[in-house]
Protein 1
Amino acid sequence: MTSLRKTESRAQPVQKRAQERRNLILGVTAELLEEVGQDDLTTILVAKRAGVSVGTLYHYFPNKYAIMYALAEQWVGEMDVALQALEVEPVESYSVKRFVEGSVERMLAVYTNQQGLLPLVQAMYGVPELKELDLVHDELIITSMARMFKRMDISSKANELERLGRTYLELSHALIIVAVNQNQTDAEKTLSELKFLNLSLLERAKSQF
């Protein structure tokens, strides 16, 4: 038993260092995505910026797409956490306007916190190795929104709830991506327009229910 405890205590610092190095590689890759884009991103660049050998980097990730996959997976995970937090709220008692304000702000926070977001999103859409996560991201938001729309009595039909969820996703995704790459004044205008569009979408659907 004593020997087992010693082995575990030695393993913990090693695991911690490994996680810290993995996080360093992910952070450096996000920085480089902003600087050079996905086409010019290489494992050599990442290793040099991270201060590790290419061989060490390959111990964690076999290629640049594996690093980008991990970044995208992290981003999707943060979106999942944000949506779960929103679903815990008593949205059935919210006005449509309050819901739109809250949901857009929660999504915006996740997008804003992801460095290198634009090239990462472009890669998720266009790179076969990352396409799976693009679909996971979309389905996550669509199904979460559909559940909340049902609770808010916007519709009770499954196909209509899914359609509204997809429209809400497409509007929000497209305009938040624009907003996070604008100056503050333009970003505020874009987000205001997004909220107006989402509000109009849901209020129209609710009036027809």
Note: The chain has two domains: 1-62, 65-208.
Protein 2
Amino acid sequence: MANKIYKYTLPRGAELTAVLVKQFIDRHQSEDVPRLTQLESYFDDEPDRVNTPPNDIKANHNFAKYITHINNGYMLSNPVSYNFAKGVKKTDALIEAYKAQSIDDHDAELAESLSVFGRAYERIYVDEDSNIESTELDPKNTFVIYDNSVKHRKLYAVNYEPVYDDKGRAVKDQYGLTIIDPRTIRRYKYAGGNLVPSEADEPHFFAEVPVIEFPNNKRLKGDYESVLTLIDDYDILQSDRITDREELVDAILAFYGVKMTTEDKEDIKKKRTVGLPADAKGEYIVKDVDEAGADILRQTLAADIHKFSMTPDLSDKEFAGNSSGVAILYKLVAFFWNVGIKSRYFEAGLRERAVLYSRFLKTKSKMEELKSSDVDVVFNSILPKNDLETSQMINNLVDIVSKKTLVRQLSFVPDAEEEIKNVEAEAGARIDDSEFGKNEPDDQNKIHADDNPLEV
């Protein structure tokens, strides 16, 4: 992950003093937390607006959640699977450790944080029953410190929680701290510029910091972070249109050529009728609203949100069933590229997890330690396919491409080899049925010696 931006660094061998802890936390609180909180607010549909007061918004459109779910739904629509290099043995213990904690659900939660915050953190630990497990850490109170060499090795992981007073208010510059280095887990109370140990140091056996930072991309940006102002503009436009409708209901009714008495006004309110002289008239005073122009602007904003977040709008009419597979794929090219980048960063974190798990499992003689290169992570992403179009392509490639490759193209066939065996078995059964009885003697046509009328 050498091309990721590393925000928190120290010279290798530097001690993490109380002064440095304060500097890092202050930086995290001032530079990262406001941004992360804002991104989370858009996902939770309570936006901390970029360019307009929330009171001016009457209609929230949760593009943020849509963008996150589309990206993650494609990347992890099916759980990832793992292949191991030849010669690697006893990997069952690793897979069982994953299954025991439903690691696929944990991966989905990490991917959601990736999409929202642009980063996610996973801590690997050993529970009281000596089982290895993973848990997610909140990016709003977690950061990892790397060395400032070209390799950027992890030095520390810091997780901090505010200390609250009796009234539930966070006490300034007081935190409960967990600092993890490559050998030890340390817990402190930070107050008044001092680090006071709150528990005995706890050694671990991972030989490196057991906290994994998953970046969403090189710049640690969320999937919808680049379109926040466009989302605001869309909400403002739609809210203004709602306001216009409300003002139309409450429009002023003006009368010309007639003097209205109080009784006449009451009749209008109650009876909704009024009598006017022949030369008088009444009309509502409303502003002209260009609904057609407003709707064109709405469509343009929506298209820009999808375009610049590189997320397809699945309600687009061009995704209708009559579109060819190639035409749809062209519309999804930018989306595939973006998810491909996310997947490569995510894969690096999953490899690191497998290595850390193997180190612990090795201490229990359950498997050998893995290297990152021993693990291949397979993303089983799927898209709806036009199976009729695929079947036509398969027919055109018979005797040119192998059966196994052709059958693999069918979305409803989970195992190509097994399907070919089933087809061959059924064909064999039909042949056996058609040959049944051919080698049996034909009793009706057979002439027995006793039936021969000619005696010899």
Note: The chain has three domains: 9-225+338-378, 227-318, 387-434.
